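DATA SHEET
Item: assembly model
Revision: 1
Owner: S.N.
Input lines:
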Amino acid sequence: MALEDVCSFKERPVQHKWFSFSSLGDAAIPFPKSDYYNLRLETSENNCGVPLHFFIPPLPHSSSFINRPLSSFCPPKNSMTVQRPFRLAHGTTTLGFIFQGGVIAAADTRASAGGLVACPAVHKITPIHSHLVVTSSGSGADCMLWERILIREIRLYQLRHGHRLSIRATAKLLSSMLHPFKGTEMCVALTLCGWDNGPKLIYVCSDGARLQGDVFSVGSGSPYAYGVLDRELRWSLSKGEAISLAREAVFRATHRDAYSGNNVDLFHITAQGWIHIALHHIMLAVKMCDLSLLCHYYVQ
Amino acid sequence: MLSSQHFGDPGKMKDYHYTGPVEHKFSPYAYNGGTVLAVAGEDFAIVASDTRLSEGYSIHSRDSPKCYKLTDTTVLGCSGFHGDCLTLTKIIDARLKMYKHSNNKTMTSGAIAAMLSTILYSRRFFPYYVYNIIGGLDEEGKGAVYSFDPVGSYQRDTYKAGGSASAMLQPLLDNQIGFKNMESVEHVPLTKDKAVQLVKDVFISAAERDVYTGDALRICVITKEGINEENIPLRKD
């Protein structure tokens, strides 16, 4: 997929009008006509640099639609999107902080859709490359797809230029890819935790924010996590102390926030790359990372 | 079938007095009910669904199964809005054929799951109202289940229930297949026959308690020999 792009390999363009919406006018952008077998390999000028084509519903009362130029695929900026009859996965606690031993990224593993726990074991921390992980919060599907797009773009850059993109530049790339969707209902709040010439922590949000800092916590459980982190966080923490601080912060947040829970996922990023602190590596028993049992530990 | 009701209050009984003029907005979605379930074993996968198609207080059909065979090793179960289910399966079939003609091989379960995720997400601003579960065998011949949300977020599971009775069935599956929330129980690996029996029992329970689930149960068992389909009657009331 990425290699095809680098080699500029393209199938012979066949003029398939697979799902032709010509009767609906200019408002609907169908599946791409030339690259018919892949939805998302075009970073050409008609899609604002975002490698994904979206179907925009032709809403009757939005006159801004009709005046929009054909080449732009920017989604409706007003709130008149189609009303959805279902809830999407939302609600989380994620955090990241910097200390002398690198960067720690931690998150809970619950995905909630409305009042139902859609999945109790979601991975909210995704590695992008060997020295960068991203924690996601907001809408689950949005984060998953945008992480995939980011992995693809970073890999393409690496293949084209022979070196890895810096983390600040990655954050800027991500922020500019999300910019066309500002004002829509897309909700993506990512924290890039990585190492390039030193630990880096950058928060990128679909509202347009892009902030570098030493500690970030995102999600519905973040106020509780900040409370715990602000008390104990120091530059001089040891690795074990930092891991247990992150775990306790997520635990306290899940204790108070209904939409966070289940288990804790921890990543530690150093100059050598990222390490997933799998549950059995922690000195405490395996079950300690199951938050319902962790409660007993902390009470004692 | 198009619904002219505002989706916010399906089936709520209003008081019998005049509340004033009410504007009904056109909703492009309708909810047709139905439950889908998938279980992955060591060398098999099961996808099962009920066959009732309902809308509001009516039953449109008693024989509308929600399992769709995609390839020899993959079955898709989709419940939610039947119109979107039909269109989505047509699109997936077309994309499978395109892949087969371009690459001269059948798509694997994992690849189908990734493709479905992008198809669903391309409609992020006007989603397909479908809850999908894919069951099949991966490249190594082990059972795989992929569960989706309506906009394309997915992950690989061992078992998953989706649709109207999902909130009732999922805890039961957690307990019986995942051995969760039980103490000192031996974790016996699931055999195919035990899994099929469990799926039947689970759907019978769902039909008792969920009005949108019932009529008949279609079970598709996927092994390396192929896909075996079975129909079991359920409560029809």
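QC remark: The first strand of chain A starts at residue 89 and ends at 90.
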